[in-house]
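Need a sequence for this fold. Nothing fancy.
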């Protein structure tokens, strides 16, 4: 399952670089992407990614970070699927509307670091 970790690390690194260098354009592209899909589909994608992270923990030299990311993705997928109190819509409103460019850049830095860590720790 190292291929999955490499794929996800490249996705995290690409998003992180994009969010740091062009936050407005990245935010708009992400907003357009999430508006086209149904909430339950995005929840299923997060859940499937979480399961794949959990299956691929053995391909990492530090499996605890992979397990942590997998559990968080499963929780995110479950919460967004159930959507208690409209949390999905509130999260998107904050993420695409209320969040400043500096906060979006900080998310990009975190994604870049996470992607680099996953890439470097994959066996």
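Here you go.
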């Amino acid at each position: 399952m190292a291929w999955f970790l490499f794929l996800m690390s490249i996705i995290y690194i690409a998003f992180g670089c994009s969010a740091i260098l062009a936050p407005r354009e990245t935010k708009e592209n992400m907003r357009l992407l999430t508006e086209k899909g149904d909430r339950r589909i995005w929840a299923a994608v997060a859940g499937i990614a979480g399961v794949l992270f959990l299956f691929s923990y053995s391909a990492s030299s530090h499996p605890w970070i992979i397990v942590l990311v997998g559990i968080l993705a499963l929780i995110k997928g479950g919460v967004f699927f159930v959507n208690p109190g409209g949390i999905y819509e509130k999260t998107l409103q904050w993420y695409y509307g209320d969040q400043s460019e500096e906060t979006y850049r900080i998310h990009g830095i975190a994604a870049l670091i996470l992607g680099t860590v996953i890439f470097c720790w994959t066996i």
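For context: The mean pLDDT is 95.
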